[in-house]
Amino acid sequence: xxxxxxxxxxxxxxxxxxxxxxxxxxxxxxxxxxxxxxxxxxxxxxxxxxxxxxxxxxxxxxxxxxxxxxxxxxxxx
Length: 77
Fold this sequence. Notes:
Order of helices and strands: EEEEE
Strand order of the largest sheet: 3-2-5
Helix content: under 10%
Oligomer: single chain
């Protein structure tokens, strides 16, 4: 896949006892209404050997191309 046509972002965060995680993004650090992905479970982890963290790669198709900055937040579900 062409990275320019199909950009992705890999995120790693500390695993907790939460049953689900939600990855949200904001263009201004004030509005966190948009989910990049929800209902993430430990089974979605791309690096299960690391028992302390969860790693996932996400397509950035929902983020405006002209965004000057993008911020990500992980929430427990």
